[in-house]
Amino acid sequence: MLPISFIIALGTNEAFAPIEKEEFQNNIATLIQKFREAAPGLPVLLISPPDNMPKQNRVPEIISWLRESAAANKAAFFNLYTASGGKGSFRKAQLKKQASGDGVHYVKPGYENQAELIWKAFSKLFTGGRN
What we know:
three-stranded parallel β-sheet, 3 strands, 6 helices
């Protein structure tokens, strides 16, 4: 059975890497192309990274690259960074015991919160925004 959609969540590691826009976007295009070759017409959703503490300034740049990649590759885009509170939201998640002390990784309650945000966005699509 083929998947009904393909979800790609990335960007946090790339915010720490010395990757340039062209390489990043080419990698995304190649990944999407490979999956679509296996399953033509496959709906694709790109999800941005949430906030983190060490590379807060690079995350918005990575998000803009993801948004452009989604448009260029006819994929949907969900901005988890904005949906979860934007800059400073990692620190707030730490105070709520939803994120680890490393400044990057969330813990179970934080990931559950992110899943809820993503689900709510899907639900709005299914209900025509009536949620």
